[in-house]
Amino acid sequence: MSGSKYPEQFRKDAVDMVRCSDRPLAQVARELGVNHETLRLWVKNADRADAAAADPTTAGLADEVRQLRKQVAELELEKEILRKAAAYFAKEMGR
């Protein structure tokens, strides 16, 4: 969005105006001197960004799941090694 002729802060303020106002989006757009479709797109993009930020199933959890699965695989391998070692030593002690 860096190619926009409107500064980032102006766009954020415009979106806030739409969200906090009981006026229709088209009216807010007229008051700001912005095309109503442009303002609608800003609001839509802001809604998506807010939803992505609020959604805990994003990249952070995916990384955590990947890490935990790796840890589980390592622990299962360790458990199998210890089980075999315990069986071996039990057999040796039983002789």
TrEMBL record:
Keyword field contains Coiled coil: yes
Top-level taxon in the UniProt lineage: Bacteria
The entry's keywords: Coiled coil
Ranges in coiled-coil conformation: 58-85
The keyword Coiled coil belongs to this UniProt entry's keyword annotation: yes
InterPro entries in UniProt: Homeodomain-like_sf, RD_transcriptional_regulator, Transposase_8
Transmembrane segments annotated in the record for this chain: none
The protein's name in its UniProt record: Transposase
